[in-house]
Amino acid sequence: MEITDDKLLKIALITSLIGIIGLIIFTPTIEVKEIAIKDINRGMIDEEVKITGVITDVAQSSSKTSYFLNINDGEAQISLIIFENQVAEIQGRNLDIEDFKNRRVQVVGTITEYNSDLELILSSGDSLRIIS
Q: Could you tell me the pTM of the whole model?
């Protein structure tokens, strides 16, 4: 059996279509790993995680465009950074950032390090939800 350019093209096309269909089917089922704040470490930098805790403090940046929220899960705490475009998304849902203070929330964000401290950067405006 001789492999011609025509056969190779058909094999590549079929393989690509199977891969794309697989991505479409399995993408909605991919979940972000939920983790306790105390388990976050430097080896997880640039990883997306889900945490649950209470917002204990809300502070606005000096430029008035970003917010810094402290989240405490009872055992540890971490800072959550919300940038201007995410603030706009949250406000588009008729919520104010101050509404989250003293509320239990679920957050999806990316772990980063700034000035030797680990922080969480909010993934999107929909990634911050009040759960009680």
A: 0.75
